[in-house]
Structure formats: structure tokens, C-alpha cells
Write a structure and sequence with these properties.
Strand content: over 45%
Structural class: alpha+beta
Radius of gyration: 28 Å
Largest sheet: 4 strands, antiparallel
CATH topology of one domain: Immunoglobulin-like
Helix content: 10-25%
Strand order of the largest sheet: 3-2-5-6
Number of helices: 1
Shape: rod-shaped
């Protein structure tokens, strides 16, 4: 009698494990996004070098919109510096970048 209960317990355990393994393949888990896209909008009348976190991203660009992809979420420091130097035109700001599209407006 004890061996019969023991064998039934093992069979039920095996069936449950097989169902669990079958269901694991059906569930797709996608990690949450951890980056955003930044549209840098520059106004002004001259050419500028654009920086994010003190790293040059665009050089000698005209006023307009420039896009950075896969920017990590968090606070970032953006700068627009005239190609002739900061005394000719400079603007900087710190902005929080979240998931999705973010706009940064620079007015050098």
C-alpha cells in the first residue's frame, strides 16, 4: 500500500514538472527599455558643436534638429558651443532623459 502511494506521488510530481516545462516555453519575457531617444533642437544663426556629458556628438552643425539614439535613462548635460568659441555663443542645460522621445532645446 505504501509503495502504491509513493509511486502515484512520483508520477504526479513528474506530470506537474512536465506541465511547468511546457508552459515556460510559452511565456515570453521582454526586459523593460533602459534607453531613450533625444531630439536636440538648436536655434541661433551660426555653426555649433553639440556635446552630451562633455562628449562631442555633432561638430559644426547649423541650427536645426539632431537625434541621438540609445541614450541611457537619467540626467544628462547638454551643450551647444559656437565653433569660434563660447564667447560667440554658448548654451547648456541638464535634463532628465526618460524612455521614449525626449526634446532638448538649446538657445546659444
Amino acid at each position: 500500500m505504501k509503495s502504491n502511494v509513493f509511486i502515484k506521488g512520483i508520477l504526479i510530481s513528474v506530470v506537474i514538472v512536465l506541465f511547468m516545462l511546457a508552459l515556460v516555453g510559452c511565456v515570453s519575457i521582454t526586459p523593460p527599455p533602459i534607453t531613450g531617444t533625444v531630439h536636440i533642437v538648436v536655434t541661433g544663426t551660426w555653426n555649433y558643436d553639440l556635446y552630451m556629458d562633455y562628449v562631442g556628438k555633432f561638430w559644426g552643425v547649423l541650427p536645426g534638429t539632431y537625434i541621438l539614439y540609445n541614450v541611457p535613462i537619467g540626467n544628462h548635460f547638454f551643450e551647444a558651443i559656437d565653433i569660434w568659441g563660447a564667447s560667440w555663443g554658448y548654451y547648456a542645460l541638464t535634463k532628465y532623459i526618460g524612455v521614449g522621445i525626449n526634446y532638448v532645446y538649446l538657445y546659444p
